Amino acid sequence: MKRAIVTGSTGMLAVATIEYLLKQDYEVIAVARPGSARLMNIPEDDRVSIVELDLKEISELPQVLETSGVDSADLFFHFSWDGTHGSSRDDCDLQLQNINSALDAVRVAAALKCEAFLGAGSQAECGQLNDGVKVAPDTACFPVTGYGIGKLCACQMTRLEAKKLGIRHVWCRILSVYGPYDGAHTMVMSGIGLMLEGKKASYTKGEQMWDYLYCKDAAKAFFLAATKGKDGAVYPIGSGKVRPLKEYIEAIRNAIDPKLPIGFGEVDYYPGQVMYLCADTTALEEDTGFAPDYTFEQGIEETVEWYREEFSL
Questions:
Q1: What are the structural domains, with CATH classification, of the chain?
Q2: With CB atoms counted within 10 Å of each terminal CB, which end of the chain scores lower, N or C?
Q3: pLDDT truncated to tens, each residue of the chain (313 aa)?
Q4: Residues near 195 by Cβ (< 8 Å), separated by ≥ 6?
């Protein structure tokens, strides 16, 4: 049986990746923040071992694992990152800590003889994009937030460190992913919450052209990138297709109650609103064979059902 290490293991992307790894018959070491209230998110399975370790202490992981007789792994998925929302995105000291922790994660992966290190990046690395331009592996990056700057720096520095240590490095530049265990503040989850309570959700006109990918498809992309991706590659993660945001919102409403009103145009576009966001998945498809399995409607059906069960609605 092969073994994978997943940091940030209580979040949506990590949970979906753990579930996918289990289906591929991997043993998983799930690294989570000590005492996290979200530890229950991690799938319960005899093949999953939870290690509670703060992100700043990730360098201690080999010693912690040694006590249980584990001295190696095959894949390392690094999702853990502090300061992803609100003002913390521009907390430079915090973002620098994230970069250092990412470098430590690469060193841990090498110490544990991992074949590949996969880092979770963000479209925020690209900065303000021109309408109609897809996020491609070679898209010029001019990030405008501390979060985006930190992710881009982590991408470049972990790649250098991985090369020095002789470990294959893959960076996934993630666009918009949705699904179970996503944050309550997102457009998808906040909308589901309001609509399940029978309330009207208010939005902009919904003219933005957006690319959404279900978390289970994202997990598939991560696994394929880690096992088949080229060393040093950057892979934008999305469906590769866009639809008006209004259509996504209507699909959420229709999965809950087609009769519910939607407040389109009741919210102003914020300054600098990105009106077009789409992943160029050509390289990912050619290198790994990736193709999404879910339509947005199928993913939303599952997400709504999960939300109902999770919150007893």
A1: 2-177+212-238 (3.40.50.720), 180-210+242-280+295-310 (3.90.25.10)
A2: N
A3: 899 999 999 999 999 999 999 999 999 999 999 999 999 999 999 999 999 999 999 999 999 999 999 999 999 999 999 999 899 999 999 999 999 999 999 999 999 999 999 999 999 999 988 788 999 999 999 999 999 999 999 999 999 999 999 999 999 999 999 999 999 999 999 999 999 999 999 999 999 999 999 999 999 999 999 999 999 999 999 999 999 999 999 999 999 999 999 999 999 998 888 899 999 999 999 999 999 999 999 999 999 999 999 998 7
A4: 201, 252, 253, 256, 257, 260
**Single pTM value for the model:** 0.97
Q: Which two tokens stand for residue 140?
A: 């010029």
